[in-house]
Amino acid sequence: MTDNLSANRANFVTHLECAMTGERYEAGRLHGLSRVGRPLLVRYDLAALGASIDRDAIAARAPDLWRWRELLPVVNTANIVSLGEIETPLIAIPRSGGKGVLVKDEGRLPTGSFKARGLVMAVSMAKELGVTRIAMPTNGNAGAALAAYASRCGIETIVLCPEETPEINVREIAAQGARVWRVNGQIDECGAIVGKGAAEGRWFDFSTLKEPYRIEGKKTMGLELALQFGWDLPDAIFYPTGGGTGLIGMWKAFDELEKLGWIGSKRPRMYAVQAEGCAPMVRAFEQGLEHAERWENAATVAAGIRVPKAVGDFLILRAVRQSGGRALAVSDAEILRAVDDTARQDGLLMCPEGGATLAALRKARAEGLVAEGERVVLFNCATGLKYPMPMAGEPLDRTKEIDLSRL
Ligand SMILES: *Cc1c(COP(=O)(O)O)cnc(C)c1O
């Protein structure tokens, strides 16, 4: 870690560009959405990058997120606000998932979720660009990661959660120094309040994809997979999709790796997984649309994917279609069964969103979309310990005679 953080390096960012129109924006300045209200993507001088380092040199570095620093936007490494972003392991779940299925266990990252990848990058860039106050709408984990990294470098944070956000998330956000509010609405309605304050100049808007650097942090999931699979990507990736940052980021990573010549043109089929109670991407995918309409009355146990409207909808749908994958919806009952199976049979406690990916894999197998023996990656995005578990543990009175055969 320290090695990767302290090493001097050149920065290869050339500019940013609107994901919709391709319009160019200058690097080294604060940006939100593009002029047409769409996400900005960071572009690199990949030819120069490839001439300065090769994939074996990166593979030889300490295994953390910062080993990819040439492919990341932070200019001055002193601005990196790290809490120890390890490379997450791939865990086999042979009994609940079957042969060839690996779970990328993101619950081991700082703040217990993969939101740490996006927020360590976005906050480091905010620090680099002189931001002092940030506001964000969140279903929980993004707010927790924002609070942690921003507090660490003295940036003030205001976090707005839908009132049905898991209790532990609301409290961990407050515990890590943010001012947190429970709003009687969905995440996009919280986002409208954040947007209003940003327009008045009260704070910088950190909504999903409304600043350009979370994608760069989330992209490291794709970079890590390439390295972990020996530069030969898996056959299928199941990703629980809310705002879609990770799916968009991985797709961008694969493109950059191919341009560098570090991987070939073969891509995993990308499966965007949503809950039946909030499936705007699935509906748009099935209707052949480029953009997804807002999903009304969104409801699911998987709070992280309860996102009725995503500003990067067209990027999610594009990646899924280009990859030959699909958007799949699963029920809350299927999600909870998958979480239970993996915990009891393979000893891995996943979050509900992680459970959704196993439920979707089961559905995909039943529909013949995934063949036996294919190399499949499921994303467990947060530690299962953050989520409510059923009551357990009957009292045992040690002062009375205990029938040990009953235990
Ligand atoms: C945020 C989140 C997701 C969705 O991630 P996106 O990249 O925003 O689509 C899934 N699961 C959990 C646990 C999350 O916190």
From TrEMBL:
| Residue ranges constituting the Tryptophan synthase beta chain-like PALP domain according to the UniProt record | 81-381
Record GO terms (molecular function): L-serine ammonia-lyase activity; pyridoxal phosphate binding; threonine deaminase activity
Keywords associated with the record:
Lyase, Pyridoxal phosphate
* Pfam families registered for this protein in UniProt: PALP
| Cofactor(s) annotated in UniProt | pyridoxal 5'-phosphate
Q: Which InterPro entries match?
A: Ser/Thr_Dehydratase, Ser/Thr_deHydtase_PyrdxlP-BS, TrpB-like_PALP, TrpB-like_PALP_sf
The record's Gene Ontology biological-process terms are: isoleucine biosynthetic process; L-serine catabolic process; L-threonine catabolic process
The UniProt entry, under PANTHER family, shows: L-THREONINE DEHYDRATASE CATABOLIC TDCB, THREONINE DEHYDRATASE, MITOCHONDRIAL-RELATED
Instruction: Provide the protein name.
Output: Threonine synthase
